[in-house]
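Can't paste images in this forum, so I'm doing it all in text. The chain is below; anyone willing to post the predicted structure tokens underneath?
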Amino acid sequence: MKRITRREWMVKTGVAALGTGIVAPAQSAALQPTRSESPPRRVLRFAHLTDIHVQPERGAEAGMAAALRHAQSHPDPPAFILQGGDAIMDGLGVSLDRLRKQWACWHRVYAAECRLPVEHVLGNHDIFGWDRQKSKASGTEPEYGKRHALEQLGLDRSYRSFDRAGWHFVVLDSVHHDPSGVYTARLDDEQFEWLAADLAATDPSVPVIICSHIPIIAACAYFDGENEKTGNWVVPGRWIHIDARRIKDLFVRHPNVKIAVSGHIHLTDRVDYAGVTYLCNGAVSGNWWKGAYDQTPAGYALIDLYEGGGFARQYVDIGWQPVT
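Text version of the structure:
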């Protein structure tokens, strides 16, 4: 990996990686490195493409192709792509025929355009049939639930961990089946126990990044829909993890958890809480292929990881114009 000077790094990222998060140099001169300090060494760059929502309509295949080409065309390219979930427009409430057409779109574009390794995260819209009223699914179909989506994405299971460039990646499955309300954002007890054991088994000196489809903690969820229309803020349990309290309490016991990335909301934000930086990274599809969603255009995140647990995120607008 090429070493860059401190000046080059700060100009390129606009941040100085310090402590457990990223701090803008203009915020506090006291926090800036002294002239004698060497810049942190970047060990990995990856692209986080989430909420692609590919479908036959609205030019979504062309939009997905454009995003993949854009992410792979940087002079300083990412080493891999983190596909953050909701690969297809929707599987929860559609017929089997519609489901198959969407996955056919996915595989067609993916095979033609993707040259980088990909790590997949399962999204709620990738799952077939849970909205029984709309999908008319019986629940006995081989494709029902998460099984078919995992097969399409080449996954053996919906959560896992792996190591890369001195960082430990944890991929979570945010989507818990709730027959009364289709799904809720949470980890079941089995997955939570697995997460606790995985973090306990990780060397405390190794920085950890958490990857989930639905945010564990997010501010932008308040602006996804009209959550204040009752006169009180009401953020549904589908929007952010309803079990965020016990997850953040677990992270507090493991200070090497540095960053958590997510999608789902189609908006971008950053929340720093109890030593962890939570980044919600927009959507490739923007407003579901209808343009920008509020202040967030169709795009993806480039994330740089550094020695010692530093990181930087930049959100990249792919310049997509909706097809009318």
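The chain has one domain: 6-32+40-317. Residues 51 and 86 are 5 Å apart (CA to CA).
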